[in-house]
Amino acid sequence: MDKPKVVLGVSGGIAAYKACELLRRLTESGHDVRVVPTASSLHFVGEATWSALSGHPVSTEVWDSVHEVPHVRIGQSADLVVVAPATADTLARAAHGLADDLLTNTLLTARCPVVFAPAMHTEMWEHPATRENVATLRRRGAVVIEPAVGRLTGVDTGKGRLPDPAEIFEVCRRVLARGPKGVEQDLAGLHVLVSAGGTREPLDPVRFLGNRSSGKQGYALARSAVARGARVTLISANAELPDPAGADVVRVGTALQLREAVLKAAGEADVVVMAAAVADFRPERYAAGKIKKKDGEEPAPVALVRNPDVLAEISVTRARPGQLVVGFAAETDDVLANGRAKLLRKGCDLLVVNEVGDHKAFGSGRNEAVVLGSDGSETPVPYGPKEDLADTVWDLVAGRIS
Length: 402
Ligand code: CTP
Hints:
Distance between the termini: 36 Å
Mean pLDDT: 94
Number of helices: 13
Shape: elongated
CATH topology of the largest domain: Rossmann fold
Strand content: 25-35%
Number of strands: 19
Bound molecules: cytidine-5'-triphosphate
Largest sheet: 8 strands, mixed
Low-confidence stretches: none
Strand order of the largest sheet: 12-11-8-13-16-17-18-19
Radius of gyration: 24 Å
Structural class: alpha/beta
Helix content: 25-40%
CATH architecture of the largest domain: 3-Layer(aba) Sandwich
């Protein structure tokens, strides 16, 4: 089988050096990559680097190898175009359909999905001109990944940093995995809220009651949603995973903190997916000092109190009209019967029911589930990567929200 063809556009920002890592990940995972840098990006990374890493000749202009008609061929034959970093200037030229170099010609001839990973100073990102250009590109079906917040060039920090190349690679992988459907951004214009990970309920400064959720399923949901064009807020409870590119990540520890963060963000969300494993109980009392054992004495029992059920609460309140709520259910016995009862009890629209056990679901990258709908539907998802389950959830959401 032919390798998927990817065009990596690189524009002139300091983050151009990070595109080398993206290129390496793409080639090592079996993609045929043509790098198309802008002339100004060559101030940051030279042609020789791109050529050596991609194994292809590199040009910025349409006037090289004219007999091969590169200004149309490269775009026409691509399965994916990713521009990383995308500067304010490149976004503007793309939004206005200019064709003044090989990259912009490629963007005009490409009929495949296009991903932009912008990187620039916060002021440039927030400028109304850039906002409008980004909105135009998104409206036309491009995935424009929200930049990360952090250190920028020089002493500045803020929004505008290129996300981790490994995470931009994940977006590319998800977009490519959707095949021709990747050109449709079926979650574009939607704001989705995903909770992930497992809450921890502290007993004392060194101990907590926790659970085995790794956060992988929730992070896979966040990544898929970014690749399908959604604005994503990820409420992450103790997950030790890198921030998905493009998602706004809010970190929480306990169930009460998670509830507060979810309720705060739910007001703006079209869809809420509660993938987090929320502790049902918390210790009644928090000991400010470490609980010590005493020789000859049995340990004092730990009194627990109930935590609020966040999923049930948001399902009842529905912070926005038409908001869709998705829950997860981890069951060890009578999986489907318990799932159905839980769907009714919680009042959500979809419930992803999976069987958990010693080697199932928790911590692994794979999962098997049945998605139950409040309309009586039942969608089995065979054992496979958590990304596939994530895409099935978004397929079902997209079908219900349009
Ligand atoms: N959930 C929640 N708040 C809680 C407990 C759970 O929002 N205090 C959410 C989870 O995020 C998940 C769903 O409820 O989406 C189901 O969680 P699960 O642990 O399977 O169900 P429980 O309500 O805890 O029911 P049980 O313990 O009886 O199985």
